[in-house]
Automatic annotation (TrEMBL):
Belongs to the ABC transporter superfamily. Pfam families: ABC_tran. Coiled coil: none annotated. It comes from Sellimonas intestinalis. CDD domains: ABC_MJ0796_LolCDE_FtsE. InterPro entries: AAA+_ATPase (IPR003593), ABC_transporter-like_ATP-bd (IPR003439), MacB-like_ATP-bd (IPR017911), P-loop_NTPase (IPR027417). Signal peptide: none annotated. Keywords: ATP-binding, Nucleotide-binding, Transport. One of its GO terms (molecular function) is ATP hydrolysis activity. Residues 5-244 form the ABC transporter domain. This is ABC transporter ATP-binding protein. One of its GO terms (cellular component) is membrane protein complex. It comes from the Bacteria.
């Protein structure tokens, strides 16, 4: 197996010793190339903090995070920015598209920043936008399309540079259930067809059921892990709901 990320005894604490919050509390896990993993947990369990550490936008209190064999916790600021640009793709709850650019221009911009050749950009953008079902909306601006179409554009933007890892923070959070379902199918296709490795934070069991593996967080620590194996999605969803009912958590189960 090809391990892409190795998280070793990572801690992230906020506050001082009188009022300390252990947002991430000695977490260790690995992610293999081609995995589609969800991080689930109740509000305040440390999901976003963990994602921010993996995304290099926040620094660990202690511990190490290796991408391949590079320890990103020891990189200097300018090295971190370069690492992020070259290795990571992001999909956020609120899309983060540029309103003054068309969908196609938003995706092109992501490749231009990587100084790719014009012909390669045109070909890649067209093939990815076609595969994600948004090619027909390419000339529209973000305000002219639906939330689901915007989010699929954000996925295309994350995918075109072939990042080592795509990090998604509650990507279905702002979508209605039909768009959420389409987006999750898109993620699955990105994973299966494009071989993208995806790590998705969600508090929604339905969204998590599309993943191959789930890490459950509680009070900043991993308390359980599920692997889908050969189960169908509905059976996996029931398994997820069983775990959630054990925690008595305040998670969404729709
Ligand atoms: N900048 C900060 N300063 C102090 N405490 C923080 C900070 N950011 C997060 N926390 C605390 O760390 C803990 C984990 O927060 P985090 O945002 O990672 O949880 P979460 O699982 O993503 O929650 P949600 O689902 O509500 O977004 C919480 O107790 C939170 O109050």
């Amino acid at each position: 197996m090809d391990t892409i990320i190795k998280v070793c005894e990572v801690e992230k604490f906020y506050g001082n010793k009188d009022t300390i919050t252990k947002a991430v509390n000695r977490i260790s896990f690995e992610v293999e190339k081609g995995e589609f993993t969800a991080i689930m947990g109740a509000s305040g369990s440390g999901k976003t903090t963990l994602l921010n550490l993996l995304a290099t936008v926040d620094q660990v209190t202690s511990g190490h995070i290796f991408y391949d064999n590079m320890d990103i916790t020891t990189l200097k600021e300018e090295e971190v920015a370069k690492f992020r640009k070259e290795n990571l793709g992001f999909v956020f709850q609120d899309f983060n598209l540029l309103d003054t650019l068309t969908l196609e221009e938003n995706v092109i911009l992501a490749m231009t920043l990587h100084k790719k050749k014009k012909q390669e950009i045109q070909q890649t953008v067209a093939s990815v936008m076609r595969a994600l079902g948004i090619w027909e909306y390419r000339k529209k601006f973000p305000y002219q399309v639906s939330g689901g179409q915007k989010q699929r554009c954000a996925c295309a933007r994350a995918l075109v540079n072939h990042p080592k890892l795509i990090l998604a923070d509650e990507p279905t959070g702002a979508l209605d259930s039909r768009s959420a379902r389409m987006l999750l199918e898109t993620f699955r296709m990105m994973n299966v067809q494009f071989g993208a490795t995806i790590l998705m934070v969600t508090h929604d069991a339905f969204s998590a059921s599309y993943c191959k593996r789930i890490l459950f967080l509680k009070d900043g620590a991993i308390f359980h892990e599920l692997n889908r194996g050969k189960q169908d999605r509905r059976t996996f969803l029931n398994q997820i709901l069983d775990v959630l009912s054990l925690t008595g958590g305040d998670l969404d189960v729709e």
